[in-house]
Amino acid sequence: MSSEAAILGVTLNRDRLNEVTAPESFAADGEFAVALRNEGEPVHVHLRFDGPLAAVASVAPPNHYVDEEATRTVRVTVAPVDEAVTGTLEVVVGHGAEATTVPVRVSPSATASGDDPAAGDEPAPGDDPASEESSEAPAPSDADPPAAESAPAGEPDNDGGSEPSAAARRRLDEWVDRARDAADTAVDGEAGVPSPEPGTLAVAALAAAALVGAGIVAVTLDGLAVTLGVVAVFVAVLAAGFLLLG
After folding, report:
1. What pLDDT score does 238 carry?
2. pTM above the 0.70 mark?
């Protein structure tokens, strides 16, 4: 029972034996207490409620012994109520020798009516800050490319890295065959072409060496720029060969 609970004061044996003095009425918010003050000889007191109040208010036990010149406080338990409840408290002394009745009105307490300030600080259902934060997390966007698609283009795949090398080797074989056919034609003097001079042969040998070197570079280093360079060397050598043999 809270120290601020209302107290209904009853005086016993003030002017005579078994006399009961009580207030004309009493009101409380929720639970309260009955203070039995004895100003005379020891006495037995019985407390009981009547009316609608009897359904919500009770004392345990209902019988109490109050010694001479003593005060005994009895707690009254009241169940939570939504609206005010009225009734009476009957105080019986001396095993029924005398009794008095006090009208009592009990109103809902502040805690029972939901006016507890601490209760207002509790978040309402569905207002959990953690759930709001998680619900605001950005969903994956369809515009975001997958990790596999974001890799830079132009890098050769490990499984197909041998295809450019094979193509370069085929082109190199074709160029070597063409150079060999051109050299055979020039040396054999087909179509009445006179035998070249020693200087011409030296230039042709250097051109062939340039072709071989370019082919080796093309095989070793893959790339469009290298391929174009080899083609340029091949064309330049053929042009020089025709000019020298023409």
Report:
1. 72
2. no
